[in-house]
Each structure stands twice: as structure tokens, then as C-alpha cells.
């Protein structure tokens, strides 16, 4: 065995004239290992496919043979109803997407500002730090639905001049205010995870506190918290549906309107399916971002 | 007391809580001089350098840079730091910036050099530390020795009056130590004023104009390297050196 390995080592050695003319061929041992691994992965694939089929089959059978299935299929999975409701629900979903995009940007800005305020030092920053902390504590404690009700029904009644009265505006405001509190904490965790030696290096070059934050700490912190932030964005995508409670016609409200005529709940299933379809690519993107940032190969095969 | 010294540390005291690290440290560094600090781990070598760079505030005493008291709270610490180059044991390059952007950050943001000029100077500096071809690499893709040479270039590009080097070879694999020490020898030959902490006694003997042995919060012994390292007068210094050499 050792002579096989050293043989492979010799043929890849510098005596053969560098990487370009590397005449490495897998040793018999390596060939045998590769063969074994391929056989193993073929078998794993077969086992996975079979067990998946069995599990799904059992689940499907259990649902379909249950006593209430025919009623459920009619009221929740009616194909004709789904087709007729789709345009209205999809139009509503377009509003959800726009809400998600606009609110996402505002949440990131407000969250980052709050996080920076909370990490400021010195007596001048004290009131700012206090306010930011109070804000985060308050809005993380309040249920989102409650904020929606309070702002959506309360704020327009104030008749504030200069601010729109639309339910959509106040619904978005509630989302931004609530989510910013969470996102601020994510950003703060990122800022605090940057090693003090990075600040020391920046300050020793003469950069001010503010410049150090702007050019050294924040770029690294934001990169580091990208995966959890994307996760919050996925969550926002769903929660954008909550503005339906204010009467805004988004996907959920549109579905509700469609069900009102005949008490067939299929439009809800359609809305649910659309939300999931929207979330899956986001979730994969999140995985991809997280993987790209991972310490490449640091874990080896474990 | 000479006012012409580039750096004068006068009766500096520094403690962390109950831990008094520097009790009464005085030291002067003349332009072009290389002062080497030696001492056991935890004796306060890094703390002294951090005080000079105002990364720590002294409890008492003064530090004069070119005759001006930089420990005066009315002095802008940022302006002082901009005149002093620091190189850390663990390099502390900015991992999100390319090598050249690491080097141009301070010139562009602190010294208001225009971007094209800064890049040109950074390239010249990389040339001189032998890493021109790595300008666009990420710090994480470099070896420890290369990272430390970039860190030195990053400090040098600002034309510092004084360089503080804190065990700059301690984190390096033995075969990479040489490339960094060679660079420091060149700096010394060009007349750069430096204070450095090191455990490389052979190197200290070659480049030091003065060696200071830090112990118990005082500079216990100081003098030319041949004396302090070759024929120490103090028992503590002898003990410390024999421990180092028996490694
Ligand atoms: N930021 C700090 N907070 C508390 N103690 C510190 C701090 N920095 C250094 N010390 C303490 O000061 C002493 C000297 O540390 P240091 O200057 O790093 O020694 P050296 O560089 O000679 O090994 C050590 O006991 C260390 O624990
Ligand atoms: Mg140290």
C-alpha cells in the first residue's frame, strides 16, 4: 500500500516538470475507492427514492381514504374554482410583491440606522442610544397584528396633515416599524461580531470613529448577516399578506372576496400556493448566499 | 531633557483595573533610531506601544511626539495616529478589501490624497515589499508572511514619522519570518524610526540601537544590544534571556 502511494507521489513530483505536464493517473487503490463510492451513492439514491415514494404514498392514501375527503376536495381543491380565482389572486399578489420590495428597502435603512445608534459610544450619543433601545424593545414586544390595527385604524383618524390616509400606506408603515426592530438587532449582532482588532487597525491608520464604522466595520458586518437578513425578507414576504386585515386588496383579501360568493375555499389554497412559489426561490437564494460566504472547505468532509 | 527626541515617553503609568501594567516607564527615541522592547509575555510591551499610538489612555506621565505632548486630551488622537505607523502581530488586514484597497484606504480617507495618486503610491509600495502581483488579491488568499508585508506597506504608505511593530513575526511559520525581517532591515537602513517588540533575539542584536528589557512595570535594563543581550547587568534580564535561549 505504501509503495502505491509513494508511486503516485513521485509521478506528481517536481521532477516531472510542473503542473502542466503532470502525468498523474489514479492508483489502483484510488480506482477501487472511486468504484466503491459510486456503487454506494447509487444505492443511497435508490433507497431515498423508494422510501420517499412509500412515505408519500401512505400519506396520500390516508388523506384520500379519510371519510371527509370528498367534501374537502370540493371546497378546497376545486380545479374550476382555482382557474376562475387565479387572475384576481395573482393581481393581489403583485401588490404583495411591491409592498415587500418597498418595505424591504425601508426596513433595511431604518434597521441599520437603529443598530448604529445603539452601538454609538460617548455621552453625546446617550439620548440617541436610549431612544433606539426603547424603540427596539417596544416594537419587538408588540404583536405585528396589533401594530397593524393601531396604525391602520388609528393613524388615519388623527387626520395628520401631509400624510396619506390610505390603509395601504399605514399597513406598510406598520410592517416597516415592526420589522425594523428585528432587523436592527440582526445588524447589531453583525456589528458586534467584528473583532476589535479591526477597529484598532483602522483607528491606528488615523481613521475617525465614523470612518472606521463606515469603511471597515459596517461592510464586514452587513456581509456577515446577509443570510439571516434574507431569512427576514422571506418572512416579510409572507407577512405582507397581513395588510389584508386593513382591507387592502392583496392576494389574501382577493382570495377572501372570491370565496364570498359560494363558500368555496379553493382561492385560499391558490393564494397559499402562490406565496410558497414566491418563497422557494428566495429561500434557495438565501442558501446560496450563505454557502458562498461559508468558510470554503474549512469543514472538510464533516 | 532633550526636546529634539522624536519620541519621549516620560514616567508613563498604565493599569487595567487593579492590574498595574506599566508603573513608571521613561524612554526616548531619536530620529532614525531603532528601539527593541523585550520582556516576558504580559510584561506590557504591547500596552506601551498602544499608549504611544493613543489606542490606550495613560493613567499618568506624558508622551511627546516631536516635542508635542500627545497625551494631552486636547490633542486630536486621529491626527496623531495618522503620523504613526502600526503593524500588529496578527496583521489585521481588512478582509473585505483587496490588498491595494487596504493600502489606499488611509491615504484617500485620512490624508486626502486623490484616488489615482493613492493607487500609484500603493503600487510602488507593493513593488517594494515584493507583492505587486498580489494587488488585487484578497488578504485571506495570501500567506501569513505576505499578509504581514502588506500590513507593513499599508502603514508605510502614509509616510509615518515613527513605526510601531508589535511582534510582527510571532504569528508566522518559521520559514516566512525571514521575508518580513529582511523588509524591516531595509527600513532601518533607510533611516526609519522604529520601536519594535520581538522575541527574535538574533534580529534584535542586528538592528537595535537600543534594547529595553521591560519587567514589573519598569524598564529594568536598557542599553546597546551587545550589552543587554550579550552581557546583561541585571539578574532578571539574565533569567529572561536564559529562558528564551533554552527554548
Ligand atoms: N484591554 C485590556 N484590558 C485588560 N487588561 C489588559 C488589556 N490589555 C492588556 N491587558 C493586560 O495587560 C498586561 C500586559 O499585556 P501586554 O501589553 O499585551 O503584554 P505583552 O505584549 O508584553 O505580552 C497583561 O496582563 C494583560 O492581561
Ligand atoms: Mg504583546
Question: How does this model look, in words?
Answer:
The complex is a heterodimer of chains A (302) and B (247). Chain A has 2 domains: 20-64; 78-297, MetI-like (MetI-like fold), CATH 1.10.3720.10. Chain A is an all-alpha fold and 302 residues long. The longest helix of chain A has 41 residues, at 79-119. The two termini of chain A are 26 Å apart. In chain A, helix 5 (126-141) packs across helix 7 (167-193). In chain A, 27% of the residues are buried. Chain A has helices at residues 2-11, 28-64, 69-76, 79-119, 126-141, 144-158, 167-193, 196-204, 209-224, 226-239, 251-260, 266-293. The model of chain A is unreliable at 1-17 and 295-300 (pLDDT under 50). The radius of gyration of chain A is 28 Å and the shape is flat. Chain B is an alpha/beta fold and 247 residues long. Helices cover 36% and strands 24% of the residues of chain B. Chain B is built from 9 helices and 10 strands. In chain B, the strands form 2 sheets. Chain B has a 6-stranded mixed sheet, sandwiched between helices. A 4-stranded antiparallel sheet of chain B has the order 2-1-4-5, covered by helices on one side. The longest helix of chain B has 16 residues, at 174-189. Chain B is globular, with a radius of gyration of 18 Å. Chain B starts with 6 loop residues before the first strand and ends with a helix. The mean pLDDT of chain B is 93. The interface between A and B is medium-sized, with 17 and 24 residues. Bound molecules: adenosine-5'-diphosphate and magnesium ion. Residues 16, 19, 21, 39, 41-47 of chain B line the site of adenosine-5'-diphosphate (ADP). The site of magnesium ion has 4 residues of chain B, from helix 1.
